[in-house]
Each structure stands twice: as structure tokens, then as C-alpha cells.
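Just curious: can you write a single protein's sequence together with how it folds?
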Amino acid sequence: MTTTERIWMTLQAHTRLKTELAALRSRPNIEIHDDSIGYDDTVVANYAARQARIRQLEDLLTHAVVGEDPPDDGVAEPGMVLTIRYDDTGEVETFLLGVRGAEDADIEVYSMQSPLGSAIDGARIGEQRTYSIPSGKELPVTLLKAAPYGMDTPNSSGRQSVPPRRNLDHWPLEQRPAAGTKR
């Protein structure tokens, strides 16, 4: 996931990721030679996964923008709590545009790499965008509200921390996301 793009995250997420990185680095290293003969497959897989996570965390932390809230200008961008309407169903959803897996928020978090996150990036209030679902169908969404995360957290606005249920009837059964996954 190497990137040169600046990545917005909260101070809490930055601290948590630094702690996780320190914990991963503090574990004793095992030396795995290129041939990997004589090693348990699980040990090799765990080692590779740990090294990949260390690289991912280093990349995230290197490019992190911490303590800089985006401007309250109504434009969808990382660090903003966005309220959108799915124009095909009329359903409304509120989520944080941020780093999946980094933010420990009481609100759904969609990344910029998600189809919805990348489609809505840069939209202004009232603007309609479309994004692709796994079946290839294009779905229209309209940005209703955009406010910096610090100014519009779920606890300060009285919203419930449980996101609304999304009607997945238009998704082919075999492509419907599992519970708890993101679009």
C-alpha cells in the first residue's frame, strides 16, 4: 500500500498505530532464509504477514496528517463526516471518510480507496456522483452534508453509533458484502 498521498487521521488513530508498530517491532525476529526449508508453513506465513503489516503501518504513519482538520467548506474529503443519499432508494447514510482500520470511531469509516469514497471525494453539498458496485452497476449518490470530524462526531450530534441498514436487494446474491464489510 505504498503511497505518496497525505493521509488524514485522528490523533487517537495515529497514537494507536504507533503503539501497534512498536509492539510488532518488539517481538523477537526469526530468520527465514529464502528456501524456507525446515520451517513450519504457519511460522513462515505469520512472519510474512507481520512484515507486511509493519510496512503498511510505516507507510501510513509516514504520510499521516495529524491534528489538521480539513476546512469546514462543505467539500467531501478525508477527515470529513459525510451524509449522503442513495438516490436509487432514498436511504441516507452518514460516515467518516478516513483510513479503514486506523480510525476507532463510533461511526462507519470508508476509505478513499473504496468505490464510494473515491467517487464522493471532492463533491460539494448537493452534488450527485455515481459509484460502481461489484456487479458493475453504477449507483447515484448525492452529498447532503460534509463537516470536519472533530466538529461533527456522533456523540456531539446525537446520531446513533449504529449505521443505517443498506438495502442490498440490487446486489447479486453472490456479490453481496458480508456483514460488517464496506462498499
Remarks:
- The chain is about 25% helix and 20% strand.
- Residues 152-183 have pLDDT under 50 and may be disordered.
